[in-house]
Amino acid sequence: MSNFHSSSEESSSVLQIWGKTPLSGHVNISGAKNAALVVIAGALLCSQDCRIRNVPLLADVTRMGELLSALGVKFQQHGDVLDIDATHISHSKAPYELVSQLRASFFVIGPLLARLGVARVPLPGGCSIGARPVDLHVRGLQAMGANVQIDHGIVHAYVTGANKRLKGAKIYLDYPSVGATETLMMAATLAEGETTIENAAQEPEVADLANFCRAMGAKIRGAGTNTIVISGVPSLHTTDYSIIPDRIEAGTFLMAGAITRSEITLSPIIPDHLTAILSKMQEIGIRTVMESPNRMRILPKQRYRSTDIETLPYPGFPTDVQAPFMSLLTLAEGDSVISETVFENRLGHVPELNRMGADIRVKGNHAIVRGVPMLSGAPVVGTDLRASAALVVAALAAEGKTTLQGLQHLDRGYEHLELKLQKLGAKLQRVQEDTTTEPIPISVDSPISST
What percent of the chain has pLDDT over 70? Predict the structure, then answer.
C-alpha cells in the first residue's frame, strides 16, 4: 500500500479524527526519515551499487529518488529496500523543481563534488519553519579547496587541479548544524588527506550516515561526538545497510499514548536516542519500561504535571518533538514554558491548538502553555510536518471530531500514520474535503505491509 498521495489528492483531502478513544497494542516504528534522506544522497559517493534497508515509504524518499534519477543514477524501490547504482553519474546539476520541494536534496552537493569535482545545486526548499542558511556548508567546502559561487539561486561548486579532488581541512562550524556536518563529512570521505570537523552536530542521524560511509570503506572516527575526523580514501565500495529507527516517530507515538492515557508498546527503538524526551515525560509523571532492548511500553497516568522545555541540538530536547509534546502539555496541570531555540518559525501549531480549546500564549520564541481540563475537536490546518503531527496528537484526546487540513506536510514525514493509529484503535480516516461522514469501521486484524 502506498503511503503517499498525489499533490492534488493531498490538497483536497483531510484527516477526520474522532477523539477520546483509548489506544492499545503495538506500533512498529519505521526507519528514520532524516537518516534515510542523507544516506540516499551518500550513496552517490559509491562508484558501485548499494542496497539500503529499513527506508520509510514517504513522499520525501520518492523525491530523493527522482533527484538521483535526474542525475543519471539507477534508483529502484521495493517496499522498504532501495537499490541505488551510482556507478555512472551523468549530470552534475540537480533540477530546481525537485530541490525546491525538498530541503534534504541539497545534500547531494557534497557527494557530487567529491565524485565529479563539480556540482550545481539550487538553494533548497522544504518546510517553512525558518531560515536554514547553507553558508556553513559553503564555507566548509571552500576550506576544502572548492570554488563556490551562488548565482541566480544556484550554488555552483567546482574543484580545480589535475585530479579534481577536494583537500582535507580543519573546519570549525559556528553552529552544530546537522546539514553542514553531514555535507562536509560526505565530501571529506573522498578528499585527499585528513579533515577535522569541530563543533560538529552529534545527532544519531549523523552517526548513522558515518556508519553507512564506513560500511562502504570510508575512514571516519568521532561521529556522534562534537569532533569528527575523516581520512580521505580514493573510492568507496558496495554495501548493504539498514537505517536506524526514527526517534521522532517514536516520540510522536509516545505523545499519542500519553495524551490518550493509553498503555501501548513501540519497537524497534534505540532508547539512548530518546533520553531527553523520556526525561521530560518522567518529569510530568509518565513512566516507561523496556520489555526488551528495543521494545518500550508506556505506562501513562490520569494526571500530568507541567514542565519547561527548551529545544536544543542533540543530545538536548529535539525541536522535532516540541510540537507534539506541547499538545500533551495543554492537558497538564499548571503552566509550562516551551522555548524554541533551533528554528524561529516553529510555533505555527499554537493558534490551531488554541482553536481546539488550549490556552497558549506566545512571546517571541517562548510559548506559555496553561493546562486546561479538556480539548475540543475543531477544523485545523497543519502548517508544517511536526505541527501537523501535534494536531493529530491533540485530536486523539479531544472531545468530538477534528478535521485536519494540510496533509501534504504529514505525508512528508510519517509512514502509514493513519494505518498505524487505526491499528492501535484510533478512529480516524482520510476523506475528500467536502465529505462529512461518521467513521467507517476498519478491520485492523491484517498486519500493515510495507509494500
Answer: 92
